[in-house]
Amino acid sequence: MKQMKNLAVLLMAGIMAFSCAACGGSGAPKETTKSSESTVKESSGGSSEAIQIATKPMTEQYILGEMLKAVIEDSTDYSAEITKGIGGGTSNIHPAMEKGEFDLYPEYTSSGWNMVLGHDAADISDEEMFEKLKEEYEANYNMTWEGLYGFNNTYAVIVRKDVADQYSLKTTSDLAAVSDQLVFGGNPDYIERKDGFGLLAEAYGLNFKDVKDIDIGLKYQAIEKGDIDVTNGFTTDAQLGRDDVVVLEDDKHLQVNYLCSTVVRKEALEEYPGLEEALMKMDGILTDKEMAGLNYQVEVEGKDEAVVARDYLVSKGIIKE
Q1: How far is it, in rounded angstroms, from Cα 190 to Cα 163?
Q2: Which of 117, 118, 72 is nearest to 273 (CA)?
Q3: Distance CA 30, CA 49 (A)
């Protein structure tokens, strides 16, 4: 099992490195292979294999992955390795988790609720959703959700500023009258999910000239180049502070909450005693503003995500300096 797991991770890392070799620019995946800094250490629990962490291809996930690695290695005798920037996000990471190729990854509540469990996110409280996520993940996949980081990264509709100015766009409803003249570019997760692009288009009567699949980390680069006019953004995006994009008001209050947590295999919790306690140190440590600020440090100021993650954890007293 261990040999197969390591082989699968290496193959996936190689595939991602090849597919994202040309990625660049602000917000683009900066690394798509396992962290080379990780080393395998003998653990007190009897396992000598590094804990495998996966992340989606977006800066926020890179930072969270580094936080998880730092917390695990500071709190336990285990080492951790990160496979960064898995294309397709939940669509590919969850099946890999089922196969045992990864042990844990940062995930958002409504993503798991809709994309994995196939439920409608309407008319359910955040508290009830989280409890049911834990119940159904354990029953169906032998996985669970550990804690909530504290921030909510929900969707926002982003338009290039010159387009917003040209058509006087302020609300998402305003977009309906001119959508047939515009190109929408969204990440695969958003376009495929039931509560994503399809629901947005139906609720607001949007009929775009073209719809393109674009990785999360490349959307703002595409909108800056003029390849797309509209995209789905996130409320913690560092790029929302730019002066060349406009966030449209969700005037029909369509979007649901996406609270971030750690999805982890139950087998991993059993294999690595103390892992659960380490992961729970991430509970409640971030606000929306703080997460956006960390994203800004990486994407705008050009800081390394591992350094940003470690500095933040040290400042909160969660890990030692």
Answers
A1: 22
A2: 72
A3: 26
Alpha helices in 157-265 (DSSP H): 161-167, 172-175, 188-192, 197-204, 219-225
Q: Which two tokens stand for residue 252?
A: 């029909």
Average pLDDT, the chain: 86
List CB contacts of 299: < 8 A, sequence separation 6 or more. 26, 27, 59, 238, 239
For residues 47 and 54, give the distance between their C-alpha atoms in angstroms, rounded to a whole number.
20
| pTM listed for this prediction | 0.72
Q: What does the block give as tokens for 231?
A: 């995209």
**Distance, C-alpha 262 to centroid of its chain:** 11
Question: Residue 157 belongs to what H/E stretch?
Answer: strand 155-160
Gap between the Cα atoms of 298 and 284, Å rounded:
22
SS3 of 305, please?
A: helix
Residues in the chain, pLDDT under 50: 1-46
Neighbours of 292 (CB within 10 A): 21
Longest Cα–Cα distance in the chain: 63
Please give the pLDDT value at position 233.
Answer: 86
